Amino acid sequence: MTMLTTPEFWLALMQIILINIVLSGDNAVVIALASRSLPPAQQRKAILFGSVGAIVLRIVLTFFAVYLLSLPYLKFAGAVLLLWIGVNLLKEDDDDADLEGHSNLAAAIKTIIVADLVMSLDNVIGVAAAAKGNLVLLVIGLGVSIPLIIYGSTLILKLMNRFPVIITIGAALLGWVAGEMAFSDPSINAWAESHHNMHLIPPVLCALLVVAAGKFLQGQNRQAS
């Protein structure tokens, strides 16, 4: 367990925690909207069972993501996806506003699981990329997501509303991880090792790109409305 004493381990763990905090906001909205028409007692059940079901599916997806990211060129695709997720995070699109609420517990749980699964692609790719194949980090990252989704949803939304800089930092972090992911693609291993002094350039450029593009599109959205 010597890796627990390395700064790289704790830095990656903080990245995973921050990614989970920022990207669990949309999942919290889904849970709230899907269960809003239920009686209070059933709301708690819908949140618990829906979240547990979604997390189990997320664990399966994450382990698949770890394997896929070990294949040549797929890290480039994952990096592009992370950039897109980060930009969209800053656009403040309210795509979940039309999600239907349910008065039936089973239907609400099903909606939560399906919607969370679809929306969890960002969490899965982000956590898998930040873990860099480290199973200990991966398990901890998934463990962190459980209380964040079940218990911390309301708090996360309040913090994001009160401190919008958290969203910007999270989006920049996704860009940073995307740059690291692209630089570590197996297809350019030899080149990357011979140009190790450039390893910070892609993360910095991608982080700046996400923030710049996201803020630009955010401004365009506000002008359009």
UniProtKB/TrEMBL annotation:
Transmembrane segments: 12-34, 46-67, 135-156, 163-179, 199-217
Record's keyword annotation contains Membrane: yes
Domain of life: Bacteria
Membrane topology according to the record: Multi-pass membrane protein
Record's keyword annotation contains Secreted: no
Major site of localization recorded for this protein: membrane
Keywords: Membrane, Transmembrane, Transmembrane helix
Annotated Pfam families: TerC
Cellular compartments annotated: Membrane
Homology family: Belongs to the TerC family.
Record-given protein name: Integral membrane protein, YjbE family
